[in-house]
Design brief:
GO terms for molecular function: ATP binding; nicotinate-nucleotide adenylyltransferase activity. There is one protein chain. The chain is of the alpha/beta class. It has a single domain, classed as 3-Layer(aba) Sandwich (Rossmann fold), CATH 3.40.50.620. It contains 6 helices and 6 strands. Strands 3-2-1-4-5-6 form a 6-stranded parallel beta sheet, sandwiched between helices. Helix 2 runs antiparallel to helix 6.
Length: 190
């Protein structure tokens, strides 16, 4: 089985994440895409993150009716911050018959050489890169295990959604209805 891994804070998950994940699962050679909820990204401040279990629950609600997508909390039990190479290594040991592919945005290419053991990621795993508006291709984009996928470009950000919630503006259509209901019931991001 060929599994695409879309890592993210999903703070909260939004339609941009879902459209991308579904596109990758249905328009590439991937059998499925797992959304990997990261408790703490080493490049982002953790003080703005909602509790990891709330974020995991929102992802679970958002993908419940899509058999092409899965959710993973694999990083919850790993040391923090989470490093992609450690997660990939752990998953490969846990599922030796699976082939894991890293899915990342073009905007991450500039930072990719700063990732822990990025060379090992490129040596042992394919990386499917999707376009992001305003991104400039980096030299690393020429590595053989990088594959560029012409996925739709959606400029929706979780930061913008959190701001809308704080300002009591509508987030309808940016976030699945089930997730909006969860946010309202639990008074999140206010």
């Amino acid at each position: 089985m060929k599994v695409g891994l879309l890592f993210g804070s999903f703070n909260p998950i939004h339609t941009g994440h879902l459209i991308l994940a579904n596109y990758m699962a249905t328009n590439t050679d991937l059998d499925t895409v797992w959304l990997v909820v990261s408790p703490q990204n080493p490049f982002k401040p953790s003080n703005t993150l909602l509790h990891e279990f709330d974020r995991l629950h929102m992802v679970t609600l958002a993908i419940a009716d899509n058999p092409n997508l899965g959710v993973s909390n694999i990083e919850f039990s790993m040391p923090k911050p989470s490093y992609t190479i450690d997660t990939l290594t752990y998953l490969q040991e846990k599922y030796p018959s699976y082939e894991f592919v890293l899915i990342m945005g073009e905007d991450n290419l500039a930072l990719f050489p700063k990732w822990k053991n990025y060379e090992r990621i490129l040596e042992y795993h394919q990386v499917y890169v999707y376009p992001r508006s305003g991104s400039v291709l980096e030299e690393i984009a020429t590595y053989p295990n990088m594959k560029f996928v012409k996925a739709p470009i959606l400029d929706i950000s979780a930061t913008f959604i959190r701001q809308c919630i704080r300002e009591e503006k509508s987030i309808k259509y940016m976030v699945p209805d089930e997730v909006i209901a969860y946010i309202k019931v639990h008074k999140l991001y206010q």
